[in-house]
From TrEMBL, chain B:
Signal sequence range: none
The protein, known as: Histidine kinase
Record-annotated Response regulatory domain positions: 5-119
KW Protease (keyword) present: no
Length: 526, 121
């Protein structure tokens, strides 16, 4: 035992360790165990031997590198780099060895099986009393995971930067796209800052108002063109209406511009409420309706004149027909009497057509005037039905239910609607002998439904029957007329704040219904 | 027998003829005036008991005529019935001071009734 211990001590002495007794040996053994239980790989290299070979490695080094001790001892630690020899960290290491300094590097190393791992290597020299570097101690940690995380972070940054530049590009594109839309619309657009300075205008604005971009953008709206935009109605809109009623739509402004003349404009104004850099900017879209209004006016004039001129000879014809009836000799044939009567009926029809034509034109241009008065609705319907019934021998008109005895609206218009619906119901149900009228009150609406058992209306035609001049195909042949009745009816009901609709099945009859709001405040809104 | 006189002023000859026919038939003396510019002269010459007046006439319109008549004390009291195919006829007639308004085309019985009523008054 003694000998063996002495022998072991001798061998250790070769490595410059000096042990004087068993305690030190025990300490060494503990130290070795401690080194082996470290999770960091630890090596010693002997700088006094050629190529600085590894003379010690702990267990962790074996585990990290995948090599066994016998494959490690004697090698220079560059064997861990395998073929990956161009890492710049090598220069740092070389320099540290040369200078006898400590250093820390992160290098790509390879396990025995070729798996890459990132080695964080701490290298520190051990010097003798003269300052010669005898050994190096290397402590290495596998930082692959950290490195990976770092690289992923870097990659994420790159991706993010790419995305940002992509989005910036796409933002720019969408800005350009939007701007090209704004420049293309055939309506003038102006953007103002909260102090009514013009931030931008589109091409159409410049064209319509015959101004240049440079004399427009950056100026106060009211100052544009030597103050020709200083329009009281516009001021009212921007300063008094818009702050409390946002957005404002279809605001009509009429103004006589010094150079371009009188313009009638419809304005939509929108103050941006969205928090952010655009807040309180004001967008104004200007539609120039000067020409449109003028055309509408001319058309109205034309129709008024046409209707007047048509009615004048009609008056004479009607008069003469009546005179003829009056002066009819007593011995005249029934056939002649019948002809005369029919002449009278068709003259009357012509008169109705002329009146319809004018009605339609007025309703279409919104020039129809409602004469609102409170009247007994049910009574008016009953009277209208009686009148039609008196002239109708083929059908029985039955009224059911009741709506209201007090409705505020234009009685003559409502009666016109009822007359129209009833005469349609009769006209288009020649095979039937009954038409029903239902009166009812639904919530705060009154409802009238006119139901016939006639030919019905195909589903595809149901929407179109409210169009001007639309007449269902073969109907045109069998039942002459202008085809504006339902159009006028719908406009009248709309003007009263109600709706008119049809429910029908082809061959099963049709029900035309309309509702009218009973609450007066609501009926005035529209 | 003294027949009451009705002056009819309308630029449309058909209506003038027709009205003349029916009203003469009813028993009135008729003064047809086609050109409204001549109406004052006729009124002065013949002092009609009633005037049937069209609105839309060239040069001098019915409402202008009516306003002039109403301003003049001599003609101020002559009953005037406006007959017109204009949609605004009723309003224009009222504003100008007409005694009655009849829309064209009218019913002859209705016209004759109104004429008789106003002339009798």
């Amino acid at each position: 035992m003694e000998n063996r211990k002495g022998h072991e001590l001798d061998s250790l002495n070769n490595g410059e360790f000096t042990f004087s007794n068993d305690t030190l040996k025990q300490d060494l053994s503990l130290l070795m165990k401690a080194l082996d239980s470290s999770i960091s790989g630890i090596i010693l290299t002997d700088n006094q031997q050629p190529d600085n070979p590894i003379i010690y490695c702990n267990k962790a080094f074996e585990r990290i590198t995948g090599y066994q001790r016998h494959e490690i001892i004697g090698h220079n630690c560059r064997f861990l780099q395998k073929e990956d020899r161009n890492q710049k960290e090598r220069a740092v290491l070389r320099n540290a060895v040369k200078e006898g300094k400590e250093c820390v590097v992160e290098m790509r190393n390879y396990q025995k099986n070729g798996t890459l791992f990132w080695n964080e290597l701490y290298m520190s020299p051990i010097k003798d009393e003269q300052g010669n570097v005898c050994y190096f101690i290397g402590v290495q940690n596998d930082v692959t995971r950290r490195k990976k995380a770092e690289q992923e972070l870097l990659h994420q940054q790159d991706v993010m930067e790419a995305q940002i530049s992509e989005r910036t590009k796409s933002l720019k594109e969408s800005e350009d796209y939007l701007s090209s839309i704004v420049q293309t619309v055939r309506e003038s657009l102006v953007v103002l800052n909260p102090d009514f300075k013009v931030l931008s205008v589109n091409e159409h604005f410049l064209k319509t108002f015959k101004v240049g971009k440079e004399e427009t953008e950056g100026r106060l709206l009211y100052d544009l063109g030597n103050g020709q935009w200083n329009i009281p109605q516009l001021k009212e809109l921007l300063e008094n209406i818009l702050p409390t009623n946002n957005p404002v739509e279809e605001f009509e402004v009429e103004h006589d511009f010094p150079h371009i003349g009188k313009k009638l404009m419809l304005l939509n104004a929108h103050r941006i409420e969205l928090e952010g850099q655009y807040k309180d900017r004001i967008l104004i879209a200007i539609e120039d309706i000067t020409d449109r209004r003028e055309i509408e006016r001319r058309k109205d004039d034309f129709l008024s004149i046409a209707s007047h001129e048509l009615k004048t000879p009609l008056t004479t014809i009607k008069g003469y027909v009546q005179i003829m009836q009056r002066l009819l000799p007593s011995d005249i044939s029934d056939k002649f009497k019948d002809i005369l009567k029919k002449t009278g009926i068709y003259v009357e029809r012509l008169n109705t057509l002329i009146a319809d034509l004018l009605d339609m034109s007025r309703i279409q241009t919104g020039n129809i005037e409602l004469h609102r008065e409170t009247f007994d609705f049910d009574k008016a319907i009953h009277e209208a039905v009686e009148n039609i019934q008196a002239a109708t021998k083929t059908h029985q008109i039955i009224i059911k239910g009741s709506a209201t005895n007090s409705y505020t609206g234009d009685e003559s218009h409502i009666v016109q609607v009822i007359n129209n619906l009833l005469s349609n119901a009769i006209k288009y149900s020649p095979e039937s002998d009954e038409v029903e009228v239902y009166l009812s009150k639904v919530s705060n609406f009154l409802k009238v439904a006119v139901k016939d058992k006639g030919m019905g209306i195909k589903i595809e035609d149901q929407k179109k029957i409210f169009d001007r001049f639309f007449r269902v195909g073969e109907i045109q042949q069998r039942f002459p007329g202008m085809g504006i009745g339902l159009y006028v009816c719908e406009q009248i009901i709309k003007n009263h704040g109600g709706t008119l609709w049809v429910e029908s099945e082809f061959g099963q009859g049709s029900t035309f219904s309309f509702t009218l709001p009973l609450d007066e405040r609501k009926s005035n809104v529209q | 027998m003294y027949n009451k006189t009705i002056l009819i002023c309308d630029d449309d000859e058909g209506i003038l003829d027709m009205l003349e026919l029916i009203l003469e038939e009813t028993g009135y003396r008729i003064i047809p005036v086609k050109n409204s510019l001549l109406i004052y002269e006729e009124i002065e010459k013949q002092s009609p008991d009633l005037i049937l007046l069209d609105l839309w006439m060239p040069v001098l319109s019915g409402d202008q005529v009516l306003r002039t008549l109403r301003k003049n004390p001599e003609t101020n009291n002559i009953p005037v019935i406006v007959i017109s195919a204009s949609r605004e006829g009723q309003r224009i007639a009222n504003e100008a001071g007409a005694d009655d308004f009849i829309a064209k085309p009218f019913d002859l019985d209705q016209l004759v009734n109104r004429v008789q009523k106003l002339i009798a008054a």
